[in-house]
Amino acid sequence: MLGELVLGEGVLGDDVGTSGSPTPTPTPTPTPTPTITVTFKHISIVDTGVKIASGDTSTVLRFIAADSEGELLTDLTSFGVLRIRGNGAPVEMTSPTVTQINKTTLPGWYELLCDEDTTISVGADFENIDFYISHASMPSIPLRAHIYRPKLTEGFTLAVDNTGRFAALPDIANGWITNTGIAADVLPANFNQLSIELTSGKMQLTDNSLQDVALALGYDPAGVNALALISILSRLPAALSAGGNIMSDMQEIAGSADTNNRFAQAVDGNTLCVVGSGSTTTSIVTSSCDPVGSVVDQFAGKSGTFTKDTSTVALRGSSFRITASTASANPVLTVTDLKAIPANNDVFTVL
């Protein structure tokens, strides 16, 4: 005969003893919650967005001084500051100026004066400058500003009309282009019509503005244009003497090569002489003669005339005749009709 299986009362999953009573399930021990401590420090450069014009030494950067617990710090002094411009090496500021702004209304607020190494590198229009501010009572603070090269129109808006010209220019006072006006720093009234055109991103004076200049100077503006001005400027260096005077010749004056040649030959036929010591009313001793003498009576039969500013007043502009001359580089001339005895360094021309 099959036996009977007797099951005791209990909860599914409970252990059952031999007596049939259930064993209690033990209460699990709770897992402890971990504690995480985070300490915040400055780990990257703070870009302030402040722009410093190249060479400016009056810009300030503001920052907040706090300890590692976040408590604001007041009355701090003796800050250390490193500066780095562009790709340069860190340099310690010689005497950093750090000022507390107002510890009552803005506790912990300070400002650093950027008064060192603010001139931008040659060829650059924009450059970063970083400051690393340190103090024993606070974590260090890195700040960044930007140095820029100011442009001509910085802070202004130019109005350009549909032709590419500036829409409006201020009136300029009358008389500037004269010597008196230049000294007084004014411009002629008709310069309010000065036009400047934009071509390929550059400003160029137009022919109209050059004609304004001609009118202000009292010249006929017809034919005045930029190309003519450029042509003149390109030829000026070769046309000027060492003293800055315009050089020319008879061909340019008369417009004739033949006239130029005749004039040159006539001038070349003159002999330039300077009187030496020991002359009389009938004999002139020369100390210089161009061309030089070489044969006897080379200058006989010619006439001589003293210059208008020669030393001896009685001989200025007076003429004489030469009857004989010696064979020497600086000849002695036998003369007639002298009005006075020539003095040393008197000057005359033999024709």
Please summarize what this structure is:
This protein is an alpha+beta fold. The protein has five helices and 16 strands.
Q: What does the secondary structure layout of this molecule look like, with pairings?
A:
Layout: E1 46-53, E2 60-64, E3 80-85, E4 91-92, E5 98-102, E6 106-113, E7 126-135, E8 138-148, H1 179-184, E9 196-199, E10 202-205, H2 207-216, H3 226-239, H4 250-254, H5 257-268, E11 271-275, E12 283-290, E13 303-306, E14 319-325, E15 332-336, E16 347-350
Parallel strand pairs: 1-8
Antiparallel strand pairs: 2-6, 3-4, 3-7, 5-6, 7-8, 9-10, 11-12, 11-16, 12-15, 13-14, 13-16, 14-15
Question: Which spans of ≥5 residues are poorly predicted at pLDDT below 50?
Answer: 5-17, 172-176, 187-205
Q: Biggest β-sheet: count, sense, barrel?
A: 6 strands, antiparallel, barrel
Mean pLDDT across every amino acid position: 79
Report the oligomer.
single chain
Cα(first) to Cα(last) distance is 178 Å
Please give the radius of gyration in angstroms. 50 Å
Shape: elongated
Structural overview:
This protein is of the alpha+beta class. The protein is 13% helix and 27% strand. It has five helices and 16 strands. The chain is elongated and about 165 Å long. The chain starts with 45 loop residues before the first strand and ends with a strand.
